[in-house]
């Protein structure tokens, strides 16, 4: 049983990804500095108790091999399931590659913060890299499916999605299955080019005693549009952190969500939007229904930076 953050990191193993050394060092220092899991005295975790997460004994799931090819489908699918993964073949204007083959120089995020991202940086065991070429419109939706089924596993993945200038794409992030005493930590980075349009549907339906931590970081260039709709239902423990860096002039962001909770289920959503250039807009709206003793917490914070 893990009693602290350092011990929990050790049981997750060492990442199979080639992360930049600066990010790796930042994550190592962050874990060493924190030493223990945050408590409700820590503001970002004020409404989320992590004692049961700290007590999990799990085995990491690795996705090191080549994917099983998927052909002849109406959607472009990437599926992660029980140590194997499957992937559709490339189409014109779209490149798919294992996160294990992304070089340190090709990872575009420049920082990592908080114990969830630090753990991901140090222990991720796979993921997908997606690039949509400049000016291309991908007609088929791209589905990244995470099948979280089984007992006492850890699913730790890092995805990087680059949508180049004037490109358009629709992506579905799907989390499904039934698990017991399991942990997921999935970080997805979106880099949205000039005048690009990205629509994301995020479906969360992981049943059983599954503890899910999901981070999306969005970096938007000028005149781009990023929309994300999140639906959370039947999940035991869900923590969503969405952080938008509106870096270009007149970038537009829409973040909507619906949630349904029963029993003693917990849904904790934190949204941060950094307006770093003039004339940008953002719109956030989360609604849902709770029954029994279910708990929902939502934080939406906008930060205005001098331009």
Notes on the protein architecture:
The protein has 307 residues and is mainly β. The chain contains four helices and 17 strands. The protein has a 17-stranded mixed β-sheet that branches. Strand 3 and strand 4 form a beta hairpin. Helix 2 crosses helix 4. The chain is globular and about 50 Å long. The relative contact order is 0.12.
List the helices and strands and how they pair.
Elements: H1 5-12, H2 21-34, H3 51-54, E1 59-60, E2 68-70, E3 76-81, E4 84-88, E5 94-98, H4 114-123, E6 128-132, E7 142-147, E8 150-151, E9 153-163, E10 168-192, E11 197-220, E12 225-233, E13 237-246, E14 252-261, E15 266-275, E16 281-290, E17 295-304
Parallel strand pairs: 1-9, 2-4, 3-7, 6-9, 7-10, 8-10, 9-10, 10-11, 11-12, 11-13, 12-14, 13-15, 14-16, 15-17
Antiparallel strand pairs: 3-4, 5-6
Helix pairs in contact: 2-4
Tag the structure with descriptive keywords:
307 residues; mainly beta; 17-stranded mixed β-sheet; 4 helices; 17 strands; 50% strand; globular
């Amino acid at each position: 049983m893990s009693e602290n953050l350092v011990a929990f990191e050790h049981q997750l193993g060492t990442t199979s990804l080639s992360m930049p050394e600066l990010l790796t060092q930042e994550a190592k220092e962050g874990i060493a500095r924190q030493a223990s899991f945050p408590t409700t005295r820590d503001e970002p975790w004020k409404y989320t108790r992590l004692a049961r997460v700290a007590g999990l004994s799990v085995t990491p799931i690795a996705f090191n091999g080549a994917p099983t090819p998927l052909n002849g489908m109406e959607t472009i699918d990437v599926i992660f399931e029980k140590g194997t993964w499957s992937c559709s073949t490339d189409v014109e204007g779209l490149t798919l590659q294992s996160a294990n083959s992304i070089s340190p120089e090709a990872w575009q995020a420049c920082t990592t913060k908080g114990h969830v991202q630090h753990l991901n940086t140090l222990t991720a065991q796979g993921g997908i890299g997606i690039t949509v070429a400049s000016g291309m419109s991908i007609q088929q939706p791209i589905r990244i499916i995470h099948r979280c089924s089984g007992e006492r596993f850890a699913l730790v993945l890092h995805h990087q999605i680059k949508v180049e200038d004037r490109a358009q794409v629709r992506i579905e992030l799907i989390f499904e299955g039934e698990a017991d005493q399991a942990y997921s930590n999935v970080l997805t980075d979106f880099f949205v080019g000039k005048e690009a349009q990205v629509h994301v549907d995020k479906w969360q339906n992981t049943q059983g005693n599954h503890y899910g931590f999901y981070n999306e970081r969005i970096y938007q260039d000028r005149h781009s549009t990023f929309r994300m709709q999140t639906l959370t239902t039947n999940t035991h423990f869900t923590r969503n952190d969405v952080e938008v860096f509106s870096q270009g002039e007149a970038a537009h962001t829409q973040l909507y969500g619906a949630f349904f909770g029963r029993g003693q289920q917990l849904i904790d959503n934190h949204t941060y939007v950094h307006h770093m250039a003039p004339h940008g807009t953002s719109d956030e709206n989360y609604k849902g229904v709770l029954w029994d003793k279910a708990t929902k917490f939502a934080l939406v914070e906008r930060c205005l930076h001098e331009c």
